[in-house]
Amino acid sequence: MLRTIGLITGGGDAPGLNAVIRAVVKTAVGEYGLRVVGIEDSFEGLIGEPRARPLTPADVRGLLPRGGTILGTRNRGRFVERLESGAHQPKAIYNEAVENLRRLGIDALIVLGGEGTLTTASEFDRLGIPVIGVPKTIDNDLAATEMTFGFMTALDISTEALDRLHTTAESHDRVMILEVMGRHAGWIALHSGISGGADVILIPEIPFSMRKIADKVFEREGCGSQFSIIVVAEGAKEVEGVEHYQDMGDDERAPRLGGIGQHVAQEVGRLTGKEARCVVLGHLQRGGSPNAFDRMLATNFGSAAVRAMMRGQRGVMVALHAANIRTVPLAEAIAKRKTVPADSQLIRTARDIGVSFATPDEDEYHKHETC
Amino acid sequence: MLRTIGLITGGGDAPGLNAVIRAVVKTAVGEYGLRVVGIEDSFEGLIGEPRARPLTPADVRGLLPRGGTILGTRNRGRFVERLESGAHQPKAIYNEAVENLRRLGIDALIVLGGEGTLTTASEFDRLGIPVIGVPKTIDNDLAATEMTFGFMTALDISTEALDRLHTTAESHDRVMILEVMGRHAGWIALHSGISGGADVILIPEIPFSMRKIADKVFEREGCGSQFSIIVVAEGAKEVEGVEHYQDMGDDERAPRLGGIGQHVAQEVGRLTGKEARCVVLGHLQRGGSPNAFDRMLATNFGSAAVRAMMRGQRGVMVALHAANIRTVPLAEAIAKRKTVPADSQLIRTARDIGVSFATPDEDEYHKHETC
Amino acid sequence: MLRTIGLITGGGDAPGLNAVIRAVVKTAVGEYGLRVVGIEDSFEGLIGEPRARPLTPADVRGLLPRGGTILGTRNRGRFVERLESGAHQPKAIYNEAVENLRRLGIDALIVLGGEGTLTTASEFDRLGIPVIGVPKTIDNDLAATEMTFGFMTALDISTEALDRLHTTAESHDRVMILEVMGRHAGWIALHSGISGGADVILIPEIPFSMRKIADKVFEREGCGSQFSIIVVAEGAKEVEGVEHYQDMGDDERAPRLGGIGQHVAQEVGRLTGKEARCVVLGHLQRGGSPNAFDRMLATNFGSAAVRAMMRGQRGVMVALHAANIRTVPLAEAIAKRKTVPADSQLIRTARDIGVSFATPDEDEYHKHETC
Amino acid sequence: MLRTIGLITGGGDAPGLNAVIRAVVKTAVGEYGLRVVGIEDSFEGLIGEPRARPLTPADVRGLLPRGGTILGTRNRGRFVERLESGAHQPKAIYNEAVENLRRLGIDALIVLGGEGTLTTASEFDRLGIPVIGVPKTIDNDLAATEMTFGFMTALDISTEALDRLHTTAESHDRVMILEVMGRHAGWIALHSGISGGADVILIPEIPFSMRKIADKVFEREGCGSQFSIIVVAEGAKEVEGVEHYQDMGDDERAPRLGGIGQHVAQEVGRLTGKEARCVVLGHLQRGGSPNAFDRMLATNFGSAAVRAMMRGQRGVMVALHAANIRTVPLAEAIAKRKTVPADSQLIRTARDIGVSFATPDEDEYHKHETC
Asked: Across the interface, which of B30, B299, B349 has its CB nearest the CB of A369?
């Protein structure tokens, strides 16, 4: 019988984690009379002497608007390091963790995380601890769910940054480049580029030509606009194949200095003779209070996760589809990353309103505008 | 052959109208080489001497972050008044407008509006002017689309208002009531109530008992919380049947003084002996710069509307479904209002986390929490 | 010898109270090794069985961005009611409170409040409990200090509200009225009117003529602007002497329905034939997270109050003058309210940029502009 | 006789420039019946064929909330380059500019700028063109004025960034470093460090010891706080004398990659064994819409500058002192930079609440706190 739920938050910080925690606790305790135990620092809290604490409704009071996670999180942490070090048998490591879960009286787990964290979580499910996953990826790159919490807040921040850069770009006749997150998927760059009125959007899925960026800048000058705004995802690559992203581990997203944004600034400055400046948004995209939508989605995910558990589901992840929460098998959720399809509507819309992706065939788009 | 698109914005102001205008113009002119003519003040601009002006890409520069509509709008305006006055034959009124469209060289219309505006628009379609509709309702109450632009921005504003009221409520041991929009559909109250951590949510779809609100306030006192937060949609009604909303015309949403919010404040104050205060958000919900999501959705809608027209579609409305834009027949779009279903997931989630809807059977929910 | 400081917050909520509490505790405990005891609910916590609790640095962690006061506050509360009821001798009431302070081991008081609260505080000082005051008035109407915390945040909120109303006013050709706080002093209306680009500003210090408002609306129409924005302080009065503000007790500021804003809307609508709508900001102005300046000022006030106490000062209030904190006698601080002088620079600036105060002699100002 | 005012904006972008332009135009045209001519791109618009345009009230409509300057600006630009190149006589360059002013019919200049721009401006005054200066420095480092517009907005942005970094720092047990502007003066770092709850603040005026930063991080760990927040001004220097700032020209403030922030991150990470991450705010601090205070101050400065001119003043700068605008001689305004005095109240307050400046003698401060 299900009496105690363990709660784990893993991977990078995202606005809404605390809102999920609050909803899980309120639903589990208030609606179903269960206990909730929070594990600290992702799976790391299950190594050695377990680090965990009971979570009551009083503990989650005031948590809704607060960013971050009161449980702490790790991008990889010692649990993953151990698994990968080869010094220990994976089986032994998992067994120790499962043993700790039992010591804590935990009957089932709700795990908040992205691809990496949920992969680990599904292992626990396989080992007999029922798991319900809650998707967490600021990049919104999980195929199994339309949307993840935190993404909208990240868009608000990136869009506001673009608004700010606009005035400086225009006042100084500059090219301003904003580097945003997105190593493999360009959703943040694409969405905020559209919302922030960018002239050029560079994403990992569409290799770009530096020359075509310069062409766009010149085209705008021809129309009397002496400035241009470029959004570049950290994982964007030039057509020629030079990759400016150095891999930093599976879930790590430091604000990389000397990354693609700065490279674009230098090259575009050189090619156009204009002042070009780069700002790297970095961690500003993933911290802080979630916006209204993210609080709602996080709450809905958290509450739905408990309900799924009470219905006897396991090895599934809650997901958003057509404005409803449903569940999908964890295995499926992990298997497929959602990248921006070349033929997506948003790409089409962006091109139609004159945004350039700086592809070699860029001239074929939006050609009627005569300023 | 399609050469000139007429553009009309009708109904109440909503954040994102200008972003749609911008996307229509950029797409129509830049991608397809069309002309765009903006009609002023909704259909009113088609009465008598037409009021309209060409819209070029230069005219829509800088429009993305700006709230409102540069074309002006009317809630009902003289066009509808004429139709309803009975002094003129409807047919004559429409013929005059169609004649004006022809004088302006307009081959087809893109019309932004809610149920009322789109009903008028579909009449033009019937009269031979191809029409593509773009849904606009701050209440998000059109069944044919998952989401309309402006709604998310309204949620941000309501949620921020709730955050602000929280601190005052808590510091003064008060009951604070926020009255938000929603005459027939409680989406704004429901969503922002969840996002803003309300204790009680009152919506038109679920008649409430004043006594049950007081019970919730007392329950919270029993748990040591001397304050409570209530969100009430302007169209919420008591179970007993007393309706505090006086109808003010089809699309009008003045911040009603002496409305339901103030009534709740008075009665709850009386029943609980606590200080109770009401704030009516009113027009603050519908003006101002759209947030990132609304800018993106508005842009996508505007651009997709032009593409639909170029594909030869007519008598349809662009709509969001499962993260994609599709088209639905205008007739269908108008026919069905989207209200909050009693068995919706969000209602369930709200109850599960302890939110009260103050229904007579309220005691049956969330009963395990012991503070 | 000073060992324990009592801390009291009184009067209406204002953004920054918690920031002051945090600074007092951190400075007193960390820098001077003192104890701090927080009294609950203003002076009410000193009636009967005292309600108070020690405050340590751990207790004030995370408090800086949080609005409100963790100590609770009262506008008047039972302490003042008792004093005014006449049922008890004031002396007896104060003696009971002083006795409670001694029982709590409190050697001196830091009191945060406005005119009313500080008047009570100075009585304690007279009775032998050294008091340092910290000014708190969202209206910024204390003559002894250039600025109080909370005021800037209120301006941000009012200004953002005006930005939002602008787009709706412009799209609908309306007159939009925003009613803000300010019963006796029009600082919020004046400042936010200038910051929000209002066309007409109505403040208690300058009686207005309804007819002159209408003239301004017509003047704007003559220049092609079909909309106007009006900011009105709740205490504004017509020249003719009709006062629309009903007094609600000394420190109470409920968002009054049926107040001056609505009256202006009705009359201006009637006089101009235009749609006129009113929004009453009410409590939204005083809750929520303080902005950067208010956090800084609150922190500086709190810390300076402790330092003043350690220097042996008493019966004084910390105050801002020329970018520095200094102290002024409490008696002086209470004695004089700061209203907007008719010849103030801001009034002059407002008139010079074309803002109307709707005075009978309004035509004499800003007369060269020909649109 | 004064009939036409020339208007120039120079130096880096700052929120509020457009608000000053609007106030100057509205006051000069509307109140005094003057003409205003805007010179483009700072003094560059006076080289060769002058680039300038008349500014009417219609031209400045809607400008109040917009960041940047519609006149364009230059940090140094071709005017300064020419002066410094030595290829031309300074006298010849100025004469050409003065000649251009005469051709444009300009009788006097209002110049918005910082030290550099105002130095150039005072030269024009010496050459017989009456000049009124308006101070503009995002760093707030002009001694002659208490405050400059743009500074408060920059503080809001930095403080919000710190709020966001807090949640990530806490969730990941990290040291987060925010690098803000301030090459010679640490006002932004000091103010926003206090407002954003930083643990360590590093400013140019107070050389720091890397070791002492690490000590603070350890001290916090000892109290159970596994994270720390550091704000560093771009011009901060280590005690040992290693300067990480490479001069980039007089008024240039690119978001420097590989600057002091990253250096601190690396070293503190190394010394403490903790994850340390740096975000460089860069241009985000100086673009975008001004906050309420900055709009008010900018409007007041602009309007007061015209009034000063009408009073016959020249060679002066408007300045804020004790909540009033006054004028100071340009020579005096340029002569003295306002840096943070070691004995300033804010430094004292910061230390008193436990902020470390990482000086070698740091242990002497705030020593009583025992967590």
From this structure: B30
Q: Taking CB atoms and an 8 Å cutoff, what residues of chain B touch C74?
A: 172
Span C328-363, pLDDT tens digits: 999 999 898 999 998 999 999 999 999 999 999 988
- To 5 degrees, how large is the angle CA D290–CA D296–CA D299? 100
Beta bridge partners of C178: C231, C279
Mean pLDDT (chain A, rounded): 93
Count of domains in chain D?
2
DSSP state of A203: B
Spatial CA neighbour of B254 closest among B134, B75, B35, B107? B75
Task: Give C296→chain D minimum CA distance, Å.
Answer: 5
Q: Are residues A237 and A300 in the same domain?
A: no
Task: State whether C298 and C181 are in the same domain.
Answer: no
List, as ranges, residues 56-75 from C with C-beta within 8 Å of B.
Answer: 66-69, 72-75
Collapsed DSSP state (helix, strand, coil) of residue B54? strand
Q: Let me know how long chain D is.
A: 371
One domain for residues C345 and C222: yes
Asked whether residue A190 carries a pLDDT value surpassing 90, the answer given is yes
The domain of C208 spans 153-285+341-364
Q: Residue D93 maps to which CATH number?
A: 3.40.50.450
Closest CA to C147 of D324, D134, D325, D191: D324
pLDDT one-digit tens code per residue, A87-104: 888 899 999 999 999 999
Listed in sequence order, the residues at least 6 apart from B341 whose beta carbon sits closer than 8 Å to its beta carbon are B205, B347
Q: How far apart are CA C152 and CA C353, in angstroms?
A: 22
- Verify that C9 and C129 share a domain, yes or no: yes
The answer as to whether B371 is a domain residue is no
One domain, residues A164 and A277: yes
- Of the pLDDT bands very low, low, confident and very high (cuts 50, 70, 90), residue D241 is low
pLDDT digits (tens, 9 = 90+) for D30-70: 999 999 999 999 999 999 999 999 999 999 999 999 999 99
Contact criterion met (CB < 8 Å) for A147 and B349: no
Cα angle C138, C144, C150; round to 5: 20
B51–chain A Cβ distance below 8 A for any pair: no
Instruction: Give the residues of chain B that fall short of pLDDT 70.
Output: 241-257, 369-370
Tell me if A161 sits within 8 A of A281, measured CB to CB: yes
Question: Are both D168 and D100 inside the same structural domain?
Answer: no
AA identity, residue C304: A
State the Cα–Cα distance between residues D224 and B98, nearest whole angstrom: 74
Query: Look-up: residue for tokens 């000073």?
Result: C2
Is B370 within the bounds of a domain?
Answer: no
In whole angstroms, what is the distance from residue B183 CA to residue D369 CA? 55
On whether any CB of chain C is under 8 Å from the CB of B278, the answer is yes
For D152, phi then psi, to 5°, come to -65, -40
**Calpha distance C68→C55 (Å, rounded):** 16
Residue with tokens 């039992």: A102
Helix (H, G, I), strand (E, B) or coil at A294: helix
Whether residue D220 sits in one domain with residue D80: no
In the stretch 164-183 of chain A, residues with CB closer than 8 A to chain B read none
Asked if C172 and B74 come within 8 Å (Cβ–Cβ), the reply is yes
D369 within a domain of the structure (yes/no): no
Q: What CA–CA distances, in Å, run from D276 to B2, D70, D168, D269?
A: 59, 40, 11, 5
**CATH number of domain containing A259:** 3.40.50.460
Q: What is the full DSSP assignment across A1-58?
A: ---EEEEEE-SS--TTHHHHHHHHHIIIIIIT--EEEEESTGGGGGSSS--EEE--GG
Listed in sequence order, the residues at least 6 apart from D340 whose beta carbon sits closer than 8 Å to its beta carbon are: D185, D186, D187, D190, D203, D205, D206, D346, D347
- Shortest Cα distance from D27 to chain C (angstroms)? 5
